[in-house]
Design a protein that fits this description.
single chain; 10% strand; 163 residues; alpha/beta
Length: 163
């Protein structure tokens, strides 16, 4: 019996770092390098995006949008369900996330509704934020939904194991 690969929801910030022009900041360049390293190992996972990721990738500069969209074409897209919308609205209404974090709330809700193992992000402000995660996880547990493990590409690489 073969075990299925872990599932990963790839949030838009990861795609942005993957496809952006080289960063002049040290942290940005490090995130880009780590993202590219993780990308080389994406076949170790069943990767998913969503309608929200596609919408965010389409926004902005047309050349950058084209690069972002090309990078995600291989992944199945999870449909934005009514349940995910309702959960994300509750995240905001209950002040579990800031009112301006609508798209970020949707990413977490979609990953939870589809029972995704990992939500991959570089968004520390609203997604990979331990204070927000604790609130969200408590709420999702009350709904009897298993929250995704939220991590960065660096964390999912597991250090030097894949280098």
């Amino acid at each position: 019996m073969s075990e299925q690969l872990p599932t990963v929801y790839i949030e838009t910030s990861v795609i942005s770092y993957l496809t952006a022009r080289p960063s002049s900041s040290l942290l940005g360049a490090a995130h880009q390098l780590i993202t590219h390293q993780w990308w080389e190992h994406r076949n170790l996972y069943r990767c998913f995006i969503s309608d929200v990721v596609i919408r965010e990738c389409r926004a902005g500069d047309p050349d950058a949008a084209s690069r972002r969209l090309a990078s995600i074409k291989e992944f199945p897209s999870l449909t934005l369900s009514d349940q995910a919308i309702q959960i994300s609205e509750e995240f905001l209404a209950r002040h579990l996330m800031p009112a301006n974090a609508t798209e970020d709330a949707l990413h977490i809700a979609i990953a939870a509704v589809y029972n995704i193992d990992f939500l991959l992000t570089w968004n520390y402000k609203h997604i990979a934020n331990p204070i927000i995660q604790k609130r969200i996880f408590t709420y999702l547990h009350n709904l009897e939904l298993l929250p995704p493990l939220i991590c960065t590409p660096e964390e999912l690489l597991g250090g030097e194991d894949h280098a």
